[in-house]
Amino acid sequence: NNQRWRPQSEPPKHQPLTWYKVNVDVPQGDDPVGLDMQSMGKGLVWLNGNAIGRYWPRTSPTDDRCTPSCDYRGKFSPNKCRAGCGKPTQRWYHVPRSWFHPSGNTLVVFEEQGGDPTKITFSRRVATSVCSFVSENYPSIDLESWDKSISDENPLAAKVQLSCPKGKNISSIKFASFGDPSGTCRSYQQGSCHHPDSLSVVEKACLNINSCTVSLSDEGFGEDPCPGVTKTLAIEADCS
């Protein structure tokens, strides 16, 4: 409070060792909030006295051997699954919504290298879909409290759990396959083994509610479509 802030219609840009202060509004909705610091160099930032942390959106090399697709299976190497070449190594910085006041929020930035503070923005992470990919041999117990000395002769069946953000429900099931599907979220594919009732079983359990659980031993799956094959349940659902 003893420092004299100088009000300016246009703050200085690309000036090192500079303090900035601005009043900000609360981002709408209940979605997680991130502070986009892509336009800045290096420094620290606070919201209402709470330290968001140090930012340094350093641009990664463009010739860093990025790969268009990724598969972590097999032998590990530091060059495996590189992505984002030529982009900031970190652009968004999480801001807990509990740090915001209904009004009168103050954002303070200390810039060390120089940047453009007029391009700092709040971004909301809006989840429009959720996915899950669970096999029947996945652990179905709490590993944190697992007592290895106790044998479990009747293990629980693996379960798929889906949950939309607060205030949203599962509005549609875009993909559902019980069998041996493959792929990643938003690009699942049916395999050679697929239960024909997969979609109806998932829709019955999940549609129009915020969260749901589907057991891989659900009665709706009935007879084993392909004995001897480890079953997997893959689901992609829309939230709205």
TrEMBL record:
Main location: secreted
PROSITE patterns, per the entry: SUEL_LECTIN (PS50228)
Gene3D superfamilies with a match to the protein in the record: 2.60.120.740, Galactose-binding domain-like
EC number of the protein: 3.2.1.23
Pfam entry (one): SUEL_Lectin
Domain SUEL-type lectin: 154-240
InterPro entries in the record: BetaGal_gal-bd, Galactose-bd-like_sf, Glycoside_Hdrlase_35, Lectin_gal-bd_dom, Lectin_gal-bd_sf
Highest taxon of the lineage: Eukaryota
Reactions catalysed, as given in the entry: Hydrolysis of terminal non-reducing beta-D-galactose residues in beta-D-galactosides
Keywords from the named record: Apoplast, Glycosidase, Hydrolase, Secreted, Signal
CDD domains: Gal_Rha_Lectin_BGal
Gene Ontology MF terms in the entry: beta-galactosidase activity; carbohydrate binding
Protein location: Secreted, Extracellular space, Apoplast
Single biological process term from Gene Ontology: carbohydrate metabolic process
GO cellular component, as recorded: apoplast
Family the UniProt entry places it in: Belongs to the glycosyl hydrolase 35 family.
Name of this chain's protein: beta-galactosidase
Organism ancestry: Eukaryota, Viridiplantae, Streptophyta, Embryophyta, Tracheophyta
